[in-house]
User: Fold this.
Amino acid sequence: MTKVKIYLHILFLCLSGSVILNAQDDSLIADNYFSGLEKMVAVRETIWKQVQTANSISEYDVNRQIILKKDNTVDTFYTLYPKERTLLHFWTGNYTALLNEIKEKRDFHHEKYNRKYTKNKNYRLLIYYGQDTLLTGLIDRTYSIRTELANRISASDMPNEEKDLLLIYLEAILAYKDLSRFEPDTVIVRSKRYVQSNPAAEYTAYVKNTLLLDYRKSAFGIGGGFFSGFTGLTGDLENLFSGGIPMGANISLSVYNISLLMNVVGTPAITKKSFYYHGIWGDGKGTNITTSELCLGYNVINNEQIKLTPYAGMMNSDFTSARIQDNDTDLDSVDVLNMNIFPMYSVGLNLEWKFRYLKSYSTYKDIFKARLNKTYWYLKLRAGYGFQLNDDFILAQHNNNTAFRIHGSGYYIQIGIGTFTTLTRRNRYHTEQ
Assistant:
């Protein structure tokens, strides 16, 4: 028993020592890890100071990595984001690295390219400290000296094909953070010139599919909105009903300058007198007038500020009222009275003022699409007239077997707000592989 106790005691001491050593190792790893982060922060701060005060920077700082070794494990801290490294290659004149990036066909304007680095355990990006300071500042400084950088590229001993490519690449990469100041025409003109001059070059497919996002305006557009205003009645309709304030919605589809207009308007009204049509419509009873229109229009004026569209088409007017039978409050006794007037015809005019274009870019692709994709908000003035062609419109038989004849029309002046977008299509030539 004594030997067993001795063995157990020795085993306990060994296990305790192992735990202590492991704890020390873990502490060492943690210390090394945080030491690496501190060094990484220092490297980024050094680069940022150089970017602020100079037009060139040390290649050593750009390529510097912090590697901490513990046994057979290696923790690598990449001090720069891919986009930061790309911009600094322009600063250092490392054009070979830039051409290698293009050969890899990196989708530099897509956020997924950055996110995949954070998911790889071998990459420790500094994503929570100084992220925007260096990247945004670097783009600002690069933008301010882009002419000097372009002159360096032009003066290099590279082939003209590669010079032209890097000049396009520089303009495109600057669009990452500040899309609003990016001019797509510069890239489009240079890219088209490059493709025409180098149809079979090594980088032509990359230019056509990644840099030159050339779109053409589609013939189709779609929009919609809401409106309200004034509606008036004439003839027998004016004698029977008194209308209120209408509320309506519209959808418009356009092909070139031809528009298909669909409007639905609801107007509360009350009866002015009692009359019989499939039941007694009592005096002063609430009524709802629903008017629907399907019209064709033509844009006689359609510029950046104004769109003027006369239109004509068919109209349907539906008058609905509820009547509760005398001395009965049971809901089952409610009669829904309806009077429908169809066909009616509609003519009118839409005047739209385009007061705001949507130019909020979220991706590199949006910049090119926005040149033709004219999405805008508008204020609309709408005026029209709905009428019957026959003088006496026979609705049905009256209760005394005489025809219930009614004649009337409606007119409206309304204002509204809505949005409209013209669709775009990618130029197929530039998407060929």
